């Protein structure tokens, strides 16, 4: 149950057996069924969540009721509303399971305790958050500069092998284009 | 010269005198004149930069030649192109001094050495990057959802006291509105 998380952490920090025990005691297992919600916009996000199995999407609903997809997550990814989690204020995102999911979660107190007991987790989360920040900056730049073709190629680079698991209208929503236009782009690149 | 940086770091981590010495040896002073460039889009960013004095802007130039301002920085802020710095690939941003600036810089090898010699810097940068990530997420949401009035209020909350130091057409560019429209918004809130 914890083997994916430990393998994931070990890519960034080295872990002794007693440290692995401490980690497994800090994370709790959670199951979601397809279409269940992990978080609703406006609620306070109580957990940081590692995806052991499954697929989720995070989206923001505007004042006009439009849905904007900000992130997908599959195995080996983290998902959550970090602002809400850190400041314990209402979440900007809703997070929904797109498949049955097996998740590992840690709450704010648990994470603060873990930083104290296992300071190398500072390094781990520094690197993880750094990568998330860089991806977020790239997304801002991409929305300013890139054509739909370029955004599609960036999507399949960022989320390899996820395309077959997500309904096409949701990929289109993430890219900010219509499903018909996405279908034309996919045909173009499939024939190359 | 290092007192602002040490005070800034001490807000997040406690520092012993010998650790302060190590830090001051790791950062190098750099001066920029108004309108000088710290980084050009397409170059590799070699430094992370702390602003001791002055004001800068980071902007991205699209394929069509449009400038998009992604960040301002004043005293006590960090500025740089983190993606370029971390991956040593071409920068997505150009960074320009809007006033004469006094900056403290650390290069990639210097920072990696500092993490090894002073692991509490992992905690410091974990928190700093976390805040930057959260600000970046808020900016994405804000560009989707907020009216120009709301974006203006978010700007003066994020950059208090910066408004008088930056040309109004650049504030307008950051907010994605015309200078004339910004002028109308400012008058409305000034009279409240």
TrEMBL record, chains A, B:
Signal peptide: none annotated. InterPro entries: cNMP-bd_dom, cNMP-bd_dom_sf, RmlC-like_jellyroll. It holds the Pfam family cNMP_binding. PROSITE patterns: CNMP_BINDING_3 (PS50042). Residues 11-123 form the Cyclic nucleotide-binding domain. This is Crp/Fnr family transcriptional regulator. It comes from Rhodocytophaga rosea.
């Amino acid at each position: 149950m914890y083997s994916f998380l430990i393998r994931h952490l070990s890519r960034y920090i080295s872990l002794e057996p007693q440290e692995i025990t401490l980690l497994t005691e800090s994370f709790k297992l959670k199951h979601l069924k397809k279409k269940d919600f992990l978080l609703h916009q406006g609620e306070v996000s109580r957990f940081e969540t590692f995806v052991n199995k499954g697929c989720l999407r995070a989206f923001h609903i505007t004042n006009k009721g439009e849905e904007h997809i900000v992130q997908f997550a599959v195995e080996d990814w983290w998902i959550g509303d970090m602002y809400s989690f850190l400041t314990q204020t209402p979440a900007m995102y809703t997070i929904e399971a797109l498949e049955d999911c097996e998740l590992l979660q840690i709450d704010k107190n648990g994470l603060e305790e873990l930083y104290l007991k296992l300071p190398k987790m500072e390094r781990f989360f520094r690197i993880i958050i750094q990568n998330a920040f860089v991806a977020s900056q790239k997304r801002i730049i991409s929305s300013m500069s890139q054509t739909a073709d370029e955004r599609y190629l960036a999507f399949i680079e960022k989320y390899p092998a996820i395309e077959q698991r997500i309904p096409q209208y949701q990929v289109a929503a993430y890219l900010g284009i219509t499903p018909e236009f996405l279908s034309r782009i996919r045909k173009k690149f499939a024939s190359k």
